[in-house]
Amino acid sequence: xxxxxxxxxxxxxxxxxxxxxxxxxxxxxxxxxxxxxxxxxxxxxxxxxxxxxxxxxxxxxxxxxxxxxxxxxxxxxxxxxxxxxxxxxxxxxxxxxxxxxxxxxxxxxxxxxxxxxxxxxxxxxxxxxxxxxxxxxxxxxxxxxxxxxxxxxxxxxxxxxxxxxxxxx
Length: 169
Known about the structure:
Blueprint: E1 23-30, E2 37-43, H1 47-56, E3 66-74, H2 77-87, E4 92-93, E5 100-102, H3 105-137, H4 159-168
Antiparallel strand pairs: 1-2, 1-3, 2-5, 4-5
Helix pairs in contact: 2-3
């Protein structure tokens, strides 16, 4: 018997390991829950689109609608989210996989801004280091400046010319 609801496993899910992936860290507020209870997460899209996805989800058993109250782009959203979760671990509320935190929005946003700024500088330093070593790693792709011999390149005879020569002989 089909209920019309999609299975939880078939719903679009963000990858659990977003390490090294640029994305957005968001804070969502649900008007059906108590004030000060926020959901913190990461996505490769925007926080507003994630809130709309949660509002459309038929299996979302929480009352009310989600609103995105904070979002900030990070060059490595997986590492940023791990640091943020460790920072706010003592304020986690509810089940562990729901990522709800009981905190002050201004304090949380200031903390997230400082964490993301630090992670973005680390990501920029890593990118600069890769750029410095890129010419050395790609040296094998550069053409040789001197030809190995002084022979002039001549294209091989075409198939039709060979066929005509064979028929003529």
